[in-house]
Input
Amino acid sequence: MPELPEVETIVRTFRPRLAGQRITRFTSSWPKHVLPSYAAVRRRLAGRTIDTVTRRGKFIILTLDNASYLLIHLRMSGRFEWFAPDLPQPDHVRATWDLATGDRLLFCDARKFGRIVLTRDLPATLADLGPEPLSRGFTLERFQSLLAARNRQMKPLLLDQSVIAGLGNIYTDESLFRAGVHPCRPSRGLTAAESSTLHTAIRAVLREAIRRHGTSIDWIYPGGWMQRHLRVYGRAGQPCVTCQTPIERIVVGQRGTHICPHCQRLRRCRRRG
DNA sequence: TGAATTGTTATCGT
DNA sequence: AACGATAACAATTC
Output
């Protein structure tokens, strides 16, 4: 569930707590999700200092002082917790970083889909990621060439992390709605005006969600309030904010998908026949 | 009890 | 071969 805005929020929250900290001990109670192996990561993390805390797509990146990188992918239900000795232990703690100050970072993950990956070759590990949608390099021209390079349905294309890094189900649906593009439209079928509007919509919805600290749709991710401003995701049956038509939930590429059937037409509607 | 949930990868077909 | 679509999978919540 955590997508780019939620991961960005987590990075901004934990950066001041982690940057400059020395790791005294790393432990995991779910070693099969620690790569390349729990033993190696545990050994190689001991004594390292965290230089920076950054993000690429949905990956959290801890840059370490020995030119290696610890990547954390939250997948569906992963989250960071800051250990608080006076509060009850959070549920589903899967990994712990003990820090030299006595502080402790916890990785909690109810569904155990998250991944913790230690690598020396960051570019290779991230090689399959597409452009950062909020970066300067993500120009309209680049977006249009991505759409033209393939001919896929827009929804699965936007969800594909090798096309654009960071979009998940929520912000894909929201972007397509804002651009008035049906999720089943083939990417090569978009007009120049539509791809331009969609390019703007993707960036706008991500920025807005970051400003609101992400979406807290259920028990998985707390803290943000973007859910109050979503226009289609999770609003099946409720009126479209533009035209009052009830929002529909359909399935596209095995994914629950939310659309306004009036604002997002599959075929352009001829006004006069 | 089983349906729903999601990002990623493996697999199948064209 | 390359691409696109589909299935499978991780494990839990409601």
User: Anything to note?
Assistant: The mean pLDDT of chain A is 90. Residues 131 and 142 of chain A are 9 Å apart (CA to CA). Chain A has seven helices and eleven strands. The two ends of chain A are 44 Å apart (CA to CA).
